[in-house]
């Protein structure tokens, strides 16, 4: 068969491409990773959902508030907004956090409650597959146990999942005076 026109050439080329091509890739369901912020309270490795933490900052200067619980460090002006700084070690274990260069605050804004949670150290983002989540909370978790929502395990350690939602719903946490 002899090709006589550019149209026939393009048609012939089109036909050969269609014959030799493989099909389109099959669409697969995309599974989103579980993404959290790794941190420690009382040397316990914890994760909080990325969506629950709006910002991570070094501990700010605070103004002491009279008549509040010992775990309320004070008020801080963070980006023009006054918010309480709450020492999580003191809240959960009765012992104040020793402020070091690794200490950080996690800014939360959950269910209308805006606060800065003082933690020992922040390790940054951690990604896990949702099916790696173990819903079991270890029975010897102590006072932090009621705020845990399972765990993830990576190559280095076991990360307990800290539920900011459980924290902000807890009556003990809401009663600061």
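^ Assign residues to that structure.
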């Amino acid at each position: 068969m002899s090709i006589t026109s550019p149209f026939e050439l393009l048609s012939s080329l089109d036909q050969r491409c269609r014959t030799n091509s493989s099909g389109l890739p099959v669409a697969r369901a995309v599974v989103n990773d579980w993404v959290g912020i790794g941190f420690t309270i009382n040397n316990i490795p914890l994760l909080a959902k990325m969506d629950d933490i709006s910002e991570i900052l070094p501990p700010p200067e605070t103004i002491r508030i009279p008549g509040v619980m010992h775990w309320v460090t004070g008020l801080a002006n963070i980006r023009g907004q006054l918010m309480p700084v709450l020492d999580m070690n003191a809240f959960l274990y009765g012992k104040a956090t020793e402020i070091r260069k690794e200490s950080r605050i996690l800014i939360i804004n959950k269910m209308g409650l805006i606060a800065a949670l003082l933690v020992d150290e922040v390790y940054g983002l951690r990604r896990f597959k949702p099916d790696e989540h173990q819903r079991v909370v270890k029975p010897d978790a102590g006072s932090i146990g009621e705020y845990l929502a399972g765990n993830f395990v990576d190559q280095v350690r076991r990360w307990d999942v800290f539920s900011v939602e459980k924290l902000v719903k807890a009556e003990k946490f809401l009663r600061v005076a």
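The helical segments are 6-20, 88-93, 164-169, 171-174.
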